[in-house]
From TrEMBL:
Name under which the protein is recorded: MerR family transcriptional regulator
A Pfam match: MerR_1
InterPro entries: DNA-bd_dom_put_sf (IPR009061), MerR-type_HTH_dom (IPR000551), MerR_fam (IPR047057)
Naturally occurring in which organism (per UniProt): [Actinomadura] parvosata subsp. kistnae
Family annotation (PROSITE patterns): HTH_MERR_2 (PS50937)
Keyword vocabulary terms for this entry: DNA-binding
Ranges of residues in domain HTH merR-type: 5-74
Domain of life: Bacteria
A GO term for molecular function: DNA binding
Length: 149
């Protein structure tokens, strides 16, 4: 194990992020610097591993920054969800995103094969689907039917 320290600007450059993000993580308590010399923060290998974990969890869109904090904080407050609860909720969010992306892919593939000259404006399938979306949205504006005595 090495005791080598890396300045905040070196870490930012190596990890492809702005220095302001590292300062923000420090302010939140997610990634405290190993030491400070004057106004410069320095990080050791332990902090770099923690930063790599934050990037894996948060930057890849797997969990929110707040949930990342819950997962990596050693003693989370009792009113916070457990790490397992965060993971379960994150998995469900990812499943929903995958489903939505699959539907988006299907639509784009359909438009790509639609025989009309301008599929975005002329595709019958898309126009029908959009009409249903509009009808559903406008249904919220309609008053409920009167109740019968």
């Amino acid at each position: 194990m090495t005791d080598e320290r890396y300045s905040i600007s070196q870490v930012a450059r190596c990890f492809g992020m702005p220095v302001s993000t590292l300062r923000y993580y420090d302010d939140l308590g997610l990634l405290p610097a190993a030491e400070r010399r004057g106004n410069v923060r320095y990080y050791g290998h332990e902090q770099l591993r923690r930063l790599a974990l934050i990037q894996r969890l948060h930057h890849r869109g797997l969990v929110s920054l707040a949930d990342t904090a819950t997962l990596i904080t050693e003693d989370p407050p009792a009113d916070q969800p457990s790490g397992r609860q965060v993971l379960i909720a994150s998995i469900e969010t990812i499943r929903t995103r995958i489903h939505d992306l699959h539907l988006a892919q299907q639509l784009l593939e359909h438009l790509l094969t639609c025989p009309t000259a301008d599929p975005v404006r002329e595709c019958t399938h898309l126009r029908t689907e959009l009409g249903e979306v509009v009808d559903h949205a406008l249904a919220a504006l309609r008053p409920p039917p009167p109740s019968r005595p």
